[in-house]
Amino acid sequence: ANLELRSKTHFTPLHHAAMRGHTETVRVLAEHGADLFARTAEGFTPMDWAERNGHIDTMLLL
What we know:
single chain; globular; Ankyrin_rpt; Ank_Repeat/CDKN_Inhibitor
């Protein structure tokens, strides 16, 4: 799978997982080299999305 595949708004699989609080998925993606600092077209990182949605466990992992 392509870990850095991006949508039209530059979301990666890691952004989607972090936004939804899928901490285990975030862990697996990170362990396999996903870019933790990738930015969306609006400039948000996966950490930003986890924080905006209150996913504390995901934030701690990132």
